[in-house]
Amino acid sequence: MKVSGFTFIRNASLLGYPVRESILSILPICDEFIVNVGDSDDDTYDIVASINNSRIRIIRSQWNEKMVTKGFVYAQQKMIAHYNCTGDWAFYLEADEVVHEDDLPKIIDCMQRYLDDKEVEALVFDYIHFYCNQNTILEGPGWLRRAPRIIRNTLRVYSPDGLFFLVLDKNRKGRYPKAALTNAKIYHYGRMRQEEKFITKINAISRYWNHPPEEFNYGSIDPFIVKEFKGTHPAVISSWLPKDPQPLILDKNYRLTTKDIRQRLKSMAERLFRVDLSRKHFKLVR
User: Fold this and answer.
1) Which of 143, 168, 164 has the alpha carbon at shortest distance from 154?
2) Angle, CA of 208, 210 and 215, to the nearest 5°
3) What pLDDT is attached to residue 203?
4) Cα–Cα distances in angstroms (integers) from residue 85 to residues 42, 49, 81, 140, in the given order
5) How far, in Å, CA of 270 to CA of 142, rounded?
6) DSSP letter (8 states) at residue 229
7) Which residues, at least 6 apart from 58, have a Cβ–Cβ distance to it below 8 Å?
């Protein structure tokens, strides 16, 4: 069994991505790791190159700055890396996602178990979304609870907007992959940057969705979805985590949006009917 890891990244330092830690978290179980490094205004290439591992293959790419529709430039960059994978499985991590070392054995076991089971096209991970600091997470149906991050590398697959995988059985219409659970977790640190860097990141990427710049502060959020994190972080991320994390100070004057109310109603329905109403970009078959 051969395993390919892959990701894409641009302006990692300027936008606060822990890309080095992300790659290192799954490199031990990858036979190759494809990193698509876009043209950057910082030391992104040097960060990736500093890992200095023969399994890492760096591709240099130029982003299409005229592609500002629904984030499709992210799909392009993700697929450049994906289409260079040569393994039986392709393991995609975004540059702010990290895997815990304790989960690596079960991930390997899952890939081996389903290697010859063609009904299983993808492997699904549970998500932990950190918010503001390493002690706070967000939970609710409006936040991605599970997603495929490993895909069988013999499928005709593309990634609209870079957000998920679609399998092409026919030329005109894609479908979500058939999947099995890994019972492993993705630790998502995307909303744990310093507030200034997060605002910079939002404004830097919004143009690719043709969105205007927006204001942001961590305290403006529904307190109903804010929870305390009681687990342990992956060892590889420890040096990236701030020693004096910024506290989350909730805005007492925050008014619930229509979306907040809708998500609260979904949460009530989930508890009442014991269902999961979060987004699912896969069909569970195992």
Assistant:
1) 168
2) 95
3) 83
4) 26, 18, 7, 34
5) 12
6) -
7) 35, 37, 45, 48, 49
Average confidence (pLDDT) over 28-49: 97
Give me the mean pLDDT over the 8-35 stretch: 97
Tokens of 250: 């909730």
Percentage of the chain surpassing pLDDT 90? 86
**Which token pair is 110?**
């899952």
The amino acid at 115: L
How far is residue 213 from each of residues 200, 233, 236, measured CA to CA in Å? 10, 32, 33
By the 8 A CB rule, do 194 and 16 touch?
yes
How many whole angstroms separate alpha carbon 186 and alpha carbon 129? 9
The conformation of residue 143, written as its DSSP 8-state character, comes to S
CA distances to 110, 115, 184, 197, 285 from 119, in Å: 14, 10, 20, 42, 8
Q: What is the pTM of this model?
A: 0.95
Burial letters for 153-190: b for 16+ Cβ neighbours within 10 Å, e otherwise? bebebebeebbbbbbeeeeeebebbbbbebebbbbbbb
**How many CB atoms are located within 10 Å of the residue 70 CB?**
15
